[in-house]
Amino acid sequence: MEAWDISKSVSQYCIDLWGEGYFAINQQGNIVARPERNGAEIDLYEIVRTVSQRGIPVPVLLRFDGIIRDRIKRMNESFVRAREEAGYGGNYLGVFPVKVNQQRHVIDTIRMAGRDYGLGLEVGSKPELCAVLAVHDTPGGLILCNGYKDDEYIELALMAGKLGRRPIIIVEQLYELEQTLRLAERLGVQAEIGIRMKPVSKGAGRWETSGGDRAKFGLTTPEIVSAIEKLKQHGKQDCLKLLHYHIGSQITSISAIKKVLREATRMYTEIAKLCPGLCFFDVGGGLAVDYDGSKTNFQSSMNYTVEEYARDVVYSIHHACEEAGIQAPTIVTESGRAMIAHHAVLVFQVIDTAPAHDAVAELESPPSDHELLSELQELYSKLSVKNCVESVHDAVSLREEILERFIQGEISLLERAYADKSFWHLIAKVRKVSTELKFVPEDIEKLDEQLKDTYFCNFSVFQSLPDSWAIDQLFPIAPIHRLREQPTRRAILADMTCDSDGQIDHLIDLKDVKSYVTLHPLKYGESYYLGAFLVGAYQEILGDLHNLFGDTNAVHVDLDSEGKVKLTHVVEGDTVREALGYVQYEPQDLTERLRMSIEEALKEGKISNEEGAKIQKRYKEALEGYTYLYVEGN
């Protein structure tokens, strides 16, 4: 057999395809992050060991701020080149939608990285607006105000202009226009207004229904005409500064982007003729992330690049404006997913396995001479390539008969246990010999799917990878070390929750979705760490407290001026006390109730004073501890 090497691990886990240059494997066989896609590397395994030694256990979310900086730089440079190639006269501004990741340190990194590019922020609620008003200190920085709005929301946004910000209130329901004009007049300020159109064209991928006639947000063409007439009635047509549309997140096909651009650019040029103050064209989000590295229009991929996207957006707007004789607007994009998905990696530990049965040379002797067990043993010994299909059918029938006999009390527990074990050994042997078949029958394929190990992992799918559970989103998952060794076990991943949905059995593959990930056998006394990659968009804020597993620890990792690794921020995960507080349990009350139970047990002589003190001490320690398991060697 050919020796295993790093290049085979790169291919096994498709790291060179989905990693976009940000992740690679070093000579030690560990995955490294390359924040600038070249040069200095950050060893994920060494970081995990370092933070563990500092008392920060896994699961831990590693955030690489340098990747955020590089993503923002790459997007801006792509639009600069596209504008130069097209001879485009307008500017470009990126805007980050805060809903994609509201974490304070993430927003701070985005703000600082985007300052030289004039990066703006988009909010969709009053709480998001309150956060952005306080932290977005870029002079003249755009604040795009989306979502449903009450008077308080709109007033806050309007007054932000007096603080040196540039809020644009985007009308997504027609009544918001009258509301905004009324409040602006009351405050004595000039509102800057945007309109969100509802394109008939749809996106492509999982969120394609965000566009089209039945879209949740946006004005129809008749409503846009009504809005313009309303502005004219108030003498405020110059207040209309921006046209916006959005056809969904993770648009997988460039053809869908081109199609909606044809419709939207025509709408822009028509409105610009009526409202000469119009100067921003916001093409929304949708720039996808290639989660599986296949570069296709599959829902977890994309069949285009950032550079191609920029060229198509710029060319479409340039062509439409030239044809209509309209001044080129400032192009605005809201590519939040593409901006930050790559920067975060969830690292978690495998703490146990339930291995599938392997083929053996011969079965153990049965615990009795029961005829059904003898038949099963004979099936195993005579199994060959020629009869493997027939043997599977016979084995399935035998197993069903053994189960029925067990229910009727004619077969003992030991006999049934032997039969079950032998059945799976036989299926494993069938899998081995069936590789010589030109065509593998469906019956064998279905049984083969069950021959996978279960790797139990110290994390919660519902808290850290909610999209994996909710919408079958694919995330690249790979060991972060031992990649000089050949992985030999086909595994599904099970989390720590008491929920059968708390597992991952759909994983990336170049040509298809796999039902397993190939991993290494555990080594006694050694920790085994896996990483879930590209988890920087939406996952933290959508995560929930199933089984009261709370937020994980998070560590911001960066490089200093000398290229050395530094930890810039450590955000501690939830303690048990905090998780209980979220569901209205007061820890002080709980402690007192436990004390009363201890007193009652002491009174009845059920426990000693020492035992009572030990229970109380352990309880208090648990309240202050991590919601996840403490694993020896972590």
Structure description:
The protein is α/β, with parallel strands linked by helices and 634 residues long. Among the domains are: 88-198 and 218-244 and 269-288 and 307-334, Alpha-Beta Barrel (TIM Barrel), CATH 3.20.20; 371-448, Methane Monooxygenase Hydroxylase, Chain G, domain 1; 577-623, no CATH class. It has 22 helices and 21 strands. The two termini are 34 Å apart. The mean pLDDT is 92.
Q: Point out poorly predicted stretches.
A: none
CATH topology of the domain at 88-198 and 218-244 and 269-288 and 307-334: TIM Barrel
Quickly give the structural class.
Answer: alpha/beta
Largest sheet: 10 strands, mixed
Question: What is the strand tally?
Answer: 21
Count helical runs: 22
Our estimate of the beta-strand percent is 15-25%
Oligomer: single chain
In helices, the fraction of residues equals 40-55%
User: Mind telling me the C-alpha Rg?
Assistant: 30 Å
Briefly say what this structure is:
With 634 residues, the chain is of the alpha/beta class. Among the domains are: 88-198 and 218-244 and 269-288 and 307-334, TIM Barrel (Alpha-Beta Barrel); 371-448, Methane Monooxygenase Hydroxylase, Chain G, domain 1, CATH 1.20.58; 577-623, no CATH class. The protein has 22 helices and 21 strands.
